[in-house]
TrEMBL record:
It holds the Pfam family Wzy_C. PANTHER family: LIPOPOLYSACCHARIDE BIOSYNTHESIS PROTEIN PA4999-RELATED (PTHR37422:SF13), TEICHURONIC ACID BIOSYNTHESIS PROTEIN TUAE (PTHR37422). It comes from Nemorincola caseinilytica. This is O-antigen ligase-related domain-containing protein. The keyword Secreted does not apply. Residues 245-406 form the O-antigen ligase-related domain. The chain crosses the membrane at residues 12-36, 42-64, 76-98, 110-130, 142-160, 166-191, 212-231, 237-270, 282-299, 399-416, 428-449, 455-472. InterPro entries: O-antigen_ligase-rel_domated, WaaL-like. It is a multi-pass membrane protein.
Length: 492
């Protein structure tokens, strides 16, 4: 009877497979569109999710760095392929799994302070959507946030269970990210690595050079710190290959021409050293105190007006050196445009301080609050970009509670990372803990000058390290318990 059931399933699978193949050929023939050639692969992936969703998840992680933005319906619709449909699949799978057994998510996950804060952030996002002035855009934001959290903050708790899983995850992301850097460097070399040509060199692999530089500067600290335990006892050729990959990342960050990415790497190193020296609990309060001090000085007697741009000297530079010099002189166009929007964000937040204007609403309301003397020729903002600061992004679109929750989250992340690091005796997990904290630190600085956490590639490098710290917290406590009971620790 069992054999008969298996034969029936095989016949159904064969019939479905041939039907998909036939319909694909027919669609390509009738429409002339080669996009339909992706249908058989999507079908096979769907089958794999049903058979072994963990393997499907590893494939999904591998596709994130090379996924590209495609536009449809005359550029009115867009989606990233192939990772976005995969996220939808995992969202549906999660709904089924949780409906069947709510206990599929372990209790230790719910109890972690990091998880509690992320849940509160999500709940407050729902509140801000309810009171949004741009409901359609806000609902879209909420949907994106939902499948990002499910894919990157929930599923990893079932994936990263052993050391080999952490190693596999590292290489599953390292290989495609490195490939994208090489492709972009090759394209950029055709333009002699010109500063003003970086956007063209990126093609469709990333949204822009900020997105690109954020991704590679986030992964770079993890590469430096966490890869060492993997290669220190390996053959010299393995170490040479590692050195080549490090050099590729250095070139990628350098030729991305993004100031924030360079500062992000430096800040990540500061966080790494502070964790090892048990000083990290001082870093974020000191950072916040400095920002508050600068804001107070700028607001005193409207002193910020003194920094308004001189239009004879403020423009986009043609090379990176001039770009850096102009930044310190206050004559760089992008820096002045940031000030223009930051001032508008602070002023507009006063009208809706609790719930904000709603996610994805900043663009539609900020200009009346802007100070015209800070306006530049790029202030037309045809690309509809936002405040260029994640704190102000939260403040204006979701109110003070959202901004405060994000500020608290960053403090708790590094405080917990420090506890985990010093709780572990296992050197492998200690290195991984520091590397993950440094990855999040680099993302924090990049997002201080942008707001990319809700984009698929940056979200992956924010939420996956975050939930890995939650997992490592559990492992470190288990290790302590094992030591107390006199059990031998597992060797890597």
């Amino acid at each position: 009877m069992l054999t008969g059931a298996i034969h029936i399933k095989e016949r159904w699978f064969a019939a479905a497979s041939f039907s998909v193949l036939f319909l694909t050929i027919l669609a390509v023939t009738l429409t002339g569109s080669y996009y339909f050639l992706a249908v058989p692969f999507a079908y096979l992936y769907l089958v794999l999710v049903g058979i072994n969703w963990k393997t499907a998840y590893w494939i999904f992680l591998f596709t994130i760095p090379p996924s590209i933005q495609l536009y449809f319906a005359g550029d009115t619709l867009s989606m990233t392929l192939p990772d976005l449909p995969m996220m939808w699949l995992f969202l549906g799978l999660f709904v089924v799994m949780y409906a069947r057994d709510p206990k599929v998510i372990p209790e230790w996950w719910w109890r972690n302070p990091l998880v509690m804060i992320v849940i509160l952030q999500f709940l407050w996002t729902i509140v801000s959507v309810i009171f949004s002035k741009m409901v359609f855009y806000s609902v879209k934001f909420l949907l994106v946030k939902t499948w990002l959290l499910v894919a990157f903050f929930v599923f990893p708790i079932w994936i990263f269970q052993e050391k080999k899983d952490f190693v596999k995850g590292f290489f599953v992301l390292l290989v495609p990210i490195t490939i994208t850097i090489v492709i972009i460097l090759v394209h950029h070399s055709m333009y002699n690595f010109a500063f003003h040509k970086i956007q063209r060199a990126i093609t469709q692999l990333y949204y822009n050079h900020v997105d690109y530089s954020t991704v590679i500067s986030q992964f770079f600290p993890l590469l430096l710190v966490s890869c060492w335990p993997l290669i220190r006892k390996r053959h010299v050729f393995i170490k040479l290959a590692f050195a080549v990959v490090v050099a590729i990342f250095v070139l990628g960050i350098g030729f991305a021409y993004a100031r924030a990415a360079v500062v992000a790497v430096v800040f990540a190193i500061v966080i790494g050293v502070a964790i090892r020296m048990r000083l990290v609990n001082l870093v974020m309060p000191a950072f916040y105190a400095l920002i508050i001090l600068l804001l107070s000085l700028a607001a005193d007697n409207n002193r910020y007006i003194d920094y308004r741009p001189n239009f004879e000297h403020t423009f986009m530079r043609r090379n990176f050196t001039d770009h850096i010099i102009a930044t310190f002189r206050g004559t760089d166009m992008s820096s002045m445009e940031r000030l223009y929007r930051w001032i508008a964000a602070v002023r507009m937040s006063k009208d809706r301080p609790l719930t904000g204007y709603g996610p994805r609403s900043f663009y539609f309301y900020y200009k009346p609050y802007a100070v015209t003397s800070f306006r530049t020729y790029v202030s037309r903002n045809t690309e509809q970009s936002t405040s260029h600061n994640y704190f102000l992004y939260m403040l204006t679109e979701q109110g003070w509670p959202a901004m405060i929750l994000y500020a608290i989250l960053m403090v708790v992340i590094f405080a917990q990372a420090q506890k985990i690091y010093h709780r572990f005796k296992d050197k492998f997990y200690r290195c991984v803990t520091v590397g993950l904290a440094m990855t999040i630190a680099a993302g924090f600085i990049n997002n201080f000058f942008s707001e990319l956490i809700e984009t698929h590639k940056v979200a992956a490098l924010f939420y996956i390290p975050l939930v890995m710290l939650v997992i490592l917290d559990k492992k470190s406590r288990d290790e302590q318990k094992a030591i107390a009971e006199g059990k031998e620790l597992a060797k890597f």
